[in-house]
Backbone:
C-alpha cells in the first residue's frame, strides 16, 4: 500500500524520531511511504482556541496537500481526530470542500489504529523483542477515534516488554494546547499527578503516542526528577524489530 | 494560607452569596490559586470525585456492557425529541397536572419564581418550610429569598443542610458538600445546633435526623424540585437517597415544586431509560433509593398528602438555550457525571472555582450562556478539551464542541484581547505557506535551542530544555520544563535519508520487508 | 379530586411564546403535530428478562441494596411478621394494607410479638406514623433488576408508611415480582393507559434503606427514612421451606 505520512508540526520538530520509526515500521511491513512536503499544520490550535476562519483555511490547505494521495497515516491521535471530526464540520457550508474533507477523513488513520484495525498487525509473528518495563499514556483524543486499549494490546505482543498499568489511565495529562500556557496552575496540577502515577508504576519507559502529551509529561518528569524515558510505540516497535538503533545512535 | 485542620471552604471569609455571585467579569485565577495551595481540600475533592467517576464507569459497564453507548444515545434522542416539541409537551403536562389537582404557575425568571413561592408561603401564613434539594432553587436563590422574608427554611438533604448551616455554597450538583470533611460537619453541628462534638459520621447523621424530624412534623410547606416531569400523566419525578423529599413533599399541607421547563419527558415508560442512567451516572446505583412519582393532590378518601400542590415551571434563561445551536444542552439531567470525570473540576477543588451554581464542564458551558459570556470568559477557556465529559454524559451532550463554540464567540466578539488575536492570526498565516512554515520552524529551533540547557547526548532526538522563561511561554515553564525542537527535524532527516525525493509527494524507497 | 388550574395564564402565554419562538414555530403553526417519541428499545434498555429466576434475582438484588429479605409461605406470613417485629423490638406499628389476609396476618403477627397496630388515621397527616416504630406495606410490584419495591398511596395506603417510621416491612407476593423496570409501566392503574385512572398521588420506587454518603463518602443508613427495610417474599417456588 502507498501511504502518505502526515507528520504533524509537533512531531516533525520535537519528536522526529517517532516519525522516523513510523516510516521504518510501515516500510518494514512492505508499504511505500511518501511524505508530502507541502504539509504544515492541520489547524488544530486555531480551531481549539476559537479561530474558526484560520482553522478553515488550514483545513482547506491540508485537504489540497493530501489530495493526490491515498491512505494517510499520522503518529498523532489529536491531529487525526482534527481531520476526521472537525474538517468536515468546518467546511460544511461548501459542498465541494465538504465532500473532499469527508474523503480525507475517511482515509486518515492514527498510526496505532492503522496497525491494529487496518493492517491487523501481529507483532508476535514478526518477532518483535524489546527488553524493559514500560507504562502507557492514553491520549485523550483517542476517544474521538473510538480507540481504547489498542496500543496496550500491541505492547503485549512485544517479547521482553513488560507493560505496567498506569493509575487513572483516562485522565488528561493537562496539555490541551494553549490551555497548558494560559491556565498553568490547573495544567500543572494535572501533569504533576500524571508524573506521580507514572512514577508509582516503577516503569523505566513511558509510551506516549502524542507529541503534545509527550512534551508536557516529559517536561514535567524532568522538573519533578522522575527518571523515565518518554518514547512512542512506533519507536519501541522499530527498535524491537531492529529497524532503529536504541536512542541516541541514529 | 489555610489551617491544616480545616478545609478552606469553611475558614475562608467567602459566604455562599459571595461564592455564587462574584464580581463580574469573573476570573477563576484567585480561587484556583487558593485551591491549588490547599492540598488537603484538593486531595479531598480529587479522591471523592475520582471514586464516583470509577463507580459510574463500572456501574454502566456492568449493566449495559457494549450497549452503553447506544443507550445514552437513545436517552439523548428522547430528550432531544421532547425539547424539539417542548410547546406540545408543556401543554400536555399542564393539562394532565391540572386535571390531577395541581396549580401550575409559569415563571419567566428566577425572581418571579421566588416571588410566586414566597407569595404562596405568605398566603398560607407559613413560618416553617422544609425543602429538598433542587438545582433550580439554587439558581433562583430561593433560600435567601424565603429567609429574608422571615420564613424559617430548612434544607433537608444532609449535604445541603450542612452547606446551609455554614452559609456556604454547594460545590457539586449531586454531592453539595464534596468539599467538606467530617470535622467541618462536627463544628457546624456544635456551633449551630448546640450538639455535642463528634466526628462519627453515624452519630452526626443521627443528630441531623432528629433535628429535622421535628421540622418535618411542624412544617406548613414543603418545597422540592423534580428530576423529571412526565407529560403523559402530569407527574413530578423526584429522586433522593435519603428519603427527605418524600417527607418534605408528603408531610406538610402544601407542596411547592420549582422545576425547569427542560425536565419534561413524554411518557412514564421513558423513565426506564432515564432512571437507570441517572442513578448509575450520579452514584453508581441501579436506582436511586427513593424514586417518587407524584401526581396531583390528596384525593377523596386519602388521609394524608398535601391538599395543595403548586408546580412552578421556570424559564430563567432556558428558552434562550432552547434556540439552536444550544438546544442539546437542555438535555442535561444534572447527574454530575461530567464533574466527576473532569480533571479540571477535580484539580480546582470542586465547584466553587466556577463562580456560579452550575460547575464542572456543563457549568462551563451553561453559565456563560445564562449569565453572559463576557462575564464568564474563563470558564470555556479553562479546559484541555480532553473529552472526558462527553464520554461520561448519559444523554450524549458533546460538551467539548460547545466549549469550542464559545471560544469562537470570544474571538468573534473580540473578548479575546488584541494581542492574542494578532499572534494566532500571524501563526495561522505562517502555516498557510510551506516556505514560511519551514523558515519559522528553523528560526524557532535556533532561538529555543539557544535558550535551552542540557542536550548534546547525540542522535536526532538530541534536545535541550528551557527551565525558565518570560512572555508567552512563562505559563509553561512555571510548571514544567519545555523541550526545545530536536537537533534534526523529521523533514531534515527525510531529505537526507530519502535524498532528493522529498518534493511534493516525495517518495521513500521501501526498505526491509519480510 | 380537587381540580387544579393555571395560576397565571398571562405568564403561561408569554413563556409559551418564548418556547415557540425558540423552536422556530411560525404564526399558524399552533397545530403542529408532534410525532411519536423515539421508542424505548427493549434490546437496549432491558437488563433482566422474564426467564431469569426472577424471584431469586430480586431477593439477591434487594439484599445487595441493603434490605433484609425473608421468604415464607402464605400460611406462615403471620409468624414471619411476628419474628421481624420482635427482632426489631417494635412496640407499635402502622400499616398501609387493604382489607384481607395481609392485614389480618399483620394484626395477628403484631399481637404475637406484643406490638400494637396503630391506625395511621388516628392523627392528622403523617403524625401518627412519626410515633410508631414500624410501617408495614404491600407493594404494587417488585423489580428484580434493581431489587426495588414499588409502593403506592391511596385510600387505604398512607404516603408515610414506607418512609416515616424507622423500620419498613414490605410484604411482596412472589407473583408481584417483575423482571425489569420496563415492565412496571404496563401495569394497570399507574396512569399509563390512555383512558384509565390517573397515576397514584404517590408511587415510590424504594431500593434500599434511606442512605447518605454525604459525609466523606461513608455510607450511613437511616438518614430521614427507615434505617432497616425488611422484605418478606410470600409464596413462589421454594415457598414452603
Residues:
Amino acid at each position: 500500500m502507498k501511504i502518505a505520512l502526515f507528520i504533524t508540526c509537533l512531531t516533525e520538530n520535537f519528536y522526529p524520531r517517532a516519525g522516523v520509526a513510523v516510516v521504518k515500521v510501515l516500510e518494514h511491513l512492505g508499504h511505500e511511504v511518501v511524505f508530502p512536503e507541502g504539509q504544515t499544520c492541520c489547524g488544530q490550535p486555531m480551531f481549539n482556541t476559537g479561530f474558526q476562519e484560520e482553522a478553515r483555511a488550514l483545513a482547506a490547505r491540508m485537504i489540497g496537500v493530501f489530495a493526490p494521495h491515498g491512505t494517510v497515516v499520522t503518529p498523532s491521535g489529536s491531529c487525526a481526530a482534527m481531520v476526521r471530526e472537525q474538517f468536515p464540520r468546518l467546511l460544511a457550508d461548501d459542498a465541494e470542500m465538504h465532500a473532499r474533507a469527508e474523503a480525507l477523513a475517511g482515509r486518515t488513520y492514527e498510526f496505532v489504529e492503522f496497525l491494529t484495525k487496518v493492517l491487523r498487525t501481529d507483532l508476535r509473528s514478526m518477532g518483535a523483542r524489546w527488553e524493559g518495563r514500560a507504562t502507557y499514556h492514553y491520549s485523550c483524543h483517542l476517544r474521538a477515534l473510538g480507540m481504547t486499549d489498542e496500543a496496550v494490546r500491541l505492547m503485549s505482543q512485544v517479547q521482553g516488554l513488560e507493560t505496567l498499568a498506569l493509575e487513572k489511565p483516562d485522565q488528561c495529562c493537562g496539555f490541551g494546547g494553549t490551555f497548558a500556557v494560559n491556565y498553568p496552575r490547573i495544567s500543572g496540577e494535572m501533569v504533576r499527578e500524571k508524573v506521580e502515577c507514572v512514577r508509582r508504576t516503577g516503569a523505566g519507559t513511558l509510551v506516549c503516542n502524542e507529541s503534545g502529551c509527550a512534551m508536557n509529561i516529559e517536561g514535567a518528569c524532568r522538573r519533578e526528577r522522575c527518571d523515565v524515558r518518554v518514547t512512542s510505540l512506533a519507536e519501541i516497535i522499530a527498535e524491537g524489530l531492529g529497524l532503529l538503533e536504541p536512542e541516541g545512535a541514529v | 494560607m489555610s489551617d491544616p485542620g480545616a478545609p478552606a471552604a469553611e475558614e475562608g471569609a467567602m459566604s455562599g452569596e459571595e461564592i455564587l455571585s462574584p464580581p463580574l467579569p469573573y476570573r477563576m485565577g484567585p480561587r484556583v490559586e487558593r485551591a491549588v495551595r490547599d492540598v488537603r481540600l484538593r486531595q479531598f475533592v480529587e479522591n471523592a470525585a475520582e471514586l464516583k467517576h470509577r463507580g459510574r464507569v463500572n456501574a454502566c459497564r456492568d449493566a449495559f456492557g457494549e450497549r452503553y453507548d447506544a443507550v445514552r444515545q437513545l436517552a439523548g434522542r428522547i430528550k432531544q425529541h421532547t425539547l424539539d416539541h417542548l410547546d406540545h409537551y408543556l401543554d400536555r403536562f399542564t393539562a394532565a397536572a391540572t386535571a390531577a389537582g395541581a396549580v401550575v404557575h409559569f415563571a419567566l425568571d428566577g425572581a418571579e419564581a421566588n416571588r410566586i413561592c414566597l407569595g404562596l408561603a405568605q398566603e398560607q401564613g407559613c413560618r416553617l418550610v422544609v425543602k429538598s434539594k433542587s438545582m433550580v432553587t439554587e439558581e433562583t436563590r430561593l433560600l435567601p429569598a424565603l429567609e429574608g422574608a422571615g420564613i424559617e427554611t430548612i434544607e433537608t438533604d444532609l449535604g445541603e443542610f450542612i452547606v446551609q448551616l455554614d452559609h456556604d455554597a454547594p460545590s457539586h450538583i449531586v454531592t453539595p458538600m464534596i468539599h467538606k470533611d467530617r470535622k467541618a460537619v462536627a463544628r457546624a453541628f456544635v456551633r449551630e445546633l448546640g450538639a455535642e462534638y463528634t466526628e462519627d459520621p453515624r452519630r452526626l447523621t443521627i443528630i441531623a435526623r432528629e433535628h429535622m424530624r421535628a421540622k418535618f412534623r411542624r412544617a406548613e410547606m414543603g418545597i422540592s424540585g423534580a428530576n423529571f416531569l412526565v407529560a403523559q400523566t402530569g407527574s413530578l419525578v423526584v429522586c433522593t437517597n435519603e428519603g427527605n423529599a418524600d417527607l418534605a413533599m408528603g408531610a406538610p399541607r402544601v407542596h411547592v415544586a420549582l422545576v425547569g421547563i427542560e425536565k419534561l419527558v413524554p411518557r412514564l415508560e421513558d423513565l426506564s431509560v432515564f432512571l437507570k442512567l441517572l442513578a448509575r451516572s450520579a452514584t453508581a446505583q441501579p436506582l436511586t433509593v427513593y424514586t417518587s412519582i407524584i401526581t396531583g393532590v390528596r384525593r377523596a378518601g386519602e388521609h394524608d398528602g398535601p391538599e395543595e400542590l403548586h408546580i412552578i415551571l421556570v424559564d430563567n434563561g432556558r428558552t434562550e438555550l432552547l434556540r439552536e445551536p444550544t438546544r442539546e444542552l437542555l438535555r442535561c439531567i444534572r447527574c454530575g457525571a461530567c464533574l466527576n470525570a473532569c480533571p479540571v473540576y477535580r484539580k480546582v477543588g470542586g465547584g466553587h472555582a466556577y463562580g456560579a451554581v452550575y460547575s464542572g464542564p456543563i457549568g462551563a458551558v451553561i453559565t456563560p450562556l445564562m449569565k453572559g459570556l463576557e462575564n464568564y470568559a474563563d470558564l470555556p477557556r479553562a479546559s484541555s478539551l480532553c473529552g472526558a465529559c462527553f464520554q461520561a454524559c448519559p444523554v450524549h451532550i458533546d460538551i467539548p464542541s460547545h466549549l469550542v463554540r464559545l471560544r469562537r464567540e470570544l474571538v468573534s466578539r473580540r473578548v479575546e484581547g488584541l494581542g492574542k488575536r494578532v499572534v494566532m492570526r500571524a501563526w495561522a498565516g505562517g502555516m498557510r505557506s510551506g516556505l514560511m512554515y519551514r523558515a519559522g520552524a528553523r528560526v524557532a529551533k535556533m532561538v529555543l535551542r539557544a535558550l535551552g540547557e542540557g542536550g548534546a547526548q547525540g542522535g536526532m532526538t538530541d534536545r535541550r530544555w528551557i527551565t525558565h522563561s518570560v512572555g508567552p511561554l512563562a505559563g509553561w515553564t512555571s510548571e514544567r520544563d519545555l523541550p526545545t525542537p530536536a537537533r534534526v527535524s523529521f523533514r531534515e532527516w527525510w531529505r537526507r535519508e530519502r535524498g532528493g525525493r522529498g518534493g511534493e509527494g516525495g517518495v521513500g524507497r521501501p526498505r526491509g520487508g519480510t | 379530586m380537587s381540580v387544579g388550574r393555571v395560576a397565571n395564564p398571562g405568564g403561561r402565554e408569554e413563556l409559551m411564546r418564548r418556547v415557540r419562538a425558540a423552536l422556530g414555530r411560525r404564526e399558524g403553526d399552533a397545530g403542529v403535530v408532534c410525532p411519536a417519541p423515539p421508542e424505548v428499545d427493549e434490546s437496549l434498555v432491558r437488563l433482566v428478562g422474564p426467564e431469569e429466576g426472577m424471584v431469586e434475582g430480586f431477593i439477591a438484588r434487594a439484599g445487595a441494596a441493603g434490605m433484609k429479605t425473608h421468604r415464607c409461605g402464605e400460611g406462615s406470613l403471620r409468624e414471619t411478621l411476628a419474628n421481624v417485629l420482635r427482632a426489631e423490638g417494635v412496640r407499635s406499628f402502622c400499616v398501609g394494607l387493604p382489607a384481607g389476609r395481609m392485614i389480618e396476618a399483620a394484626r395477628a403477627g403484631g399481637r404475637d410479638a406484643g406490638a400494637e397496630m396503630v391506625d395511621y388515621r388516628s392523627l392528622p397527616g403523617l403524625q401518627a406514623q412519626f410515633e410508631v416504630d414500624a410501617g408495614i406495606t404491600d407493594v404494587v410490584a417488585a423489580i428484580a433488576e434493581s431489587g426495588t419495591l414499588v409502593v403506592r398511596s391511596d385510600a387505604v395506603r398512607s404516603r408515610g408508611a414506607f418512609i416515616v417510621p424507622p423500620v419498613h416491612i414490605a410484604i411482596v407476593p412472589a407473583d408481584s415480582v417483575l423482571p425489569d423496570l420496563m415492565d412496571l409501566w404496563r401495569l394497570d392503574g399507574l396512569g399509563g393507559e390512555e383512558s384509565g385512572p390517573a397515576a397514584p398521588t404517590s408511587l415510590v420506587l424504594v431500593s434500599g434503606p434511606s442512605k447518605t454518603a454525604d459525609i466523606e463518602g461513608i455510607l450511613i443508613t437511616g438518614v430521614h427514612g427507615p434505617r432497616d427495610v425488611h422484605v418478606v417474599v410470600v409464596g413462589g417456588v421454594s415457598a414452603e421451606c
